[in-house]
Amino acid sequence: MAGLFEKAVLRLMGDRGLLVEYGDSISPDINVKVRTMAMVIADENPDGVVEVIPTYRSLLIVYDPLVTDIMTLEEALQSMEIRLDQLEIPPPSTVEIPVLYGGDNGPDIEFVADAHNMTAEDVIRIHSGAEYQVYMIGFTPGFPYLGGLPEELHTPRLESPRSLVLAGSVGIANNQTGIYPVDSPGGWRLIGRTPLKLFNPLKENPFLYRAGDMIKFVRISEQEYHRILSEGNA
Amino acid sequence: MDAFRVLEPGPFTTVQDSGRYGYQQFGIPVSGALDKLAYLAANMLVGNQRNEAVLEITFIGPRLEVLSDTIVAITGADVPVFVNDRPQAMWAAFAVHRGDVISIRSARKGVRAYFAVMGGLDVQEIMGSRSTYTSGKIGGLEGRPLAKGDTLRRGPAGALNRMVFVPENFKPRFDTDIALRAIPGPQDDFFDTGLGVFFGSEFTVTSKADRMGYRLEGPKIEFKENAPQSIISEPSVSGAIQVPPDGQPIIVLAEQTVGGYAKIATVISPDLDVLAQAKPGDRVRFVPVDLTEAHTIYRSYRSRLDRLKECLRS
User: Fold this and answer.
1) Average pLDDT, stretch A103-129?
2) Å between B82 CA and nearest CA of chain A
3) What is the CATH number of the domain that holds A80?
4) Other CB atoms closer than 10 Å to residue B300's CB: what's the count?
5) Total Cβ atoms within 10 A of residue A113
6) Given an 8 Å threshold on Cβ–Cβ distance, is A66 in contact with B299?
7) Which pLDDT does position A84 carry in this prediction?
8) What global pTM score does this model have?
9) Which domain holds residue A37?
10) pLDDT value of residue B307
């Protein structure tokens, strides 16, 4: 397994953060290890752990130094590692994201098509034909860092970012694709938009997916877009 | 109950509490009051026993019309406070009556002041917190700063058995030369001579300083030869000091969950209260501490907060 460390590397992030690195590259194996450990820690809930944040290749344990210390946490991590092989990781959910491609909602789709000598139809077929893994979530609430964009669609960012990208916009930046969950500035090439609300803070579960889940984009018509929008994502 | 009408909002006044925990894995930062001691003091002064929501004021305070009799307190940055035209002391609770106008003017020293009301500000709790996170448009008043014409509500009032005040030694010093203690890492190994420049130089706070982070200006912190200039995006905490390729450090604060810049060191959490009151033009030095020292400082900070609570228990 390329890049996966034999032994986790621990680093200090201030007086309340312990960074645990499991590898030094972006790869599914390393990311699975990160997420599995995050799950186990959440499950074991060792004393003094305030929050666990999994990312591509490392996770951060935020702890209360009045309750625990680095040595105790390190020992807890080691004993969890030993039991890791016996654990059944729940399979990732696949979340379908309906997308209206092109038009006003995907103003850069022609650019992406031209850049690869293909038609907008090809872009849609290839983009919606793949499955993408959520490696991590960050930047804005619910913004997924997705792996698995087919190489034919890799396209550089805008030279100058837009000051406003509307919530739901689906874009491409180099080898990544992603969805903007809230209105924000952004420099990704926009190829479509989902009518789903990806972040609903008032719901008991405010997010549609978590790190590790798979995302599949499903092409919809303008009619379907407006129907889903008017149903308010109930 | 309706408590105040906002006559003037001030440039950036937000509702904050002790923060929103448990959602950083979904891209929701902690948010919350930046100067924790001043925040805690404001709440304790008005008899709030829990982490109630207050106003965090930036540089210039709001003008508020009082809609119902209550008790309030203002702490943090040194701001002139008036009730109608009568000056009012900070760091002490005082009664206000329906029809009064509270004016909180420009900070003479420091940046962030805290305005607490008995019972706490009553806004909807979002994911376990009332803190405003403006980029995510959640918390506080529809996720935005105060605006003219807003009505602020307050929770049910408790009781204030005796009036209390904050002893002088708990108040901020507002030095313009600030020493921040920091633990090297997690990417201190990206630097060799740069580490010496970082811990041996003075940096100036720029005007790009907000709740997301403080950009500093000073001698360029060079990466060591062959070190990558960025990292695979990883988690970040309040106090993390990023070094972008231009070599000018950025101290991350309460509104960022992940980042792709190398972090040379991390400011220890007790010193973040001091940083919250640093303004553009102030000079910052970094002092290296190891984890053992840092935890000793942390324990003494926490017992200081406990002593403050003891003084203010009404």
Assistant:
1) 97
2) 37
3) 3.30.1360.40
4) 10
5) 20
6) yes
7) 80
8) 0.93
9) 4-86
10) 94
Most confident of A30-34, A85-89, B274-278: B274-278
Residue A149 is part of a domain; what is its CATH number? 2.40.100.10
pLDDT one-digit tens code per residue, B215-259 = 999 999 999 999 988 898 899 999 999 999 899 999 999 998 988
Of A86, A110, A130, which closes a domain? A86
**Are A79 and A98 found together in one domain?**
no
Only one residue has tokens 């590397």, namely: A9
Claim to verify: residue A192 and residue A103 sit in the same structural domain: yes
Residues in chain A closer than 8 A to B135 (CB atoms): 140, 182, 184
Domain termination residue (choose one: A31, A56, A86): A86
- Given a cut of 80, is residue B196 above it in pLDDT? yes
Mean pLDDT computed over B6-34:
97
> What number of C-beta contacts closer than 8 Å exist between A and B?
129
In chain B, which residues have their Cβ closer than 8 Å to the Cβ of A202?
126
| Residue from the list B23, B266, B299 with its beta carbon closest to the beta carbon of A13 | B266
| A145 and A82, same domain (yes or no) | no
Distance CA B168, CA B206 (A): 30
Burial letters A153-163, b for 16+ CB under 10 A, else e: bbbeebeeebe
Q: Is the distance from CB of A73 to CB of A18 less than 8 angstroms? A: yes
Q: Is residue B206 over pLDDT 60?
A: yes
Q: Please state the domain count of chain A.
A: 2
Beta strand B14-16 pairing with B86-88: unpaired
CA distance readout (Å), B107 to B104, B174, B286: 9, 11, 26
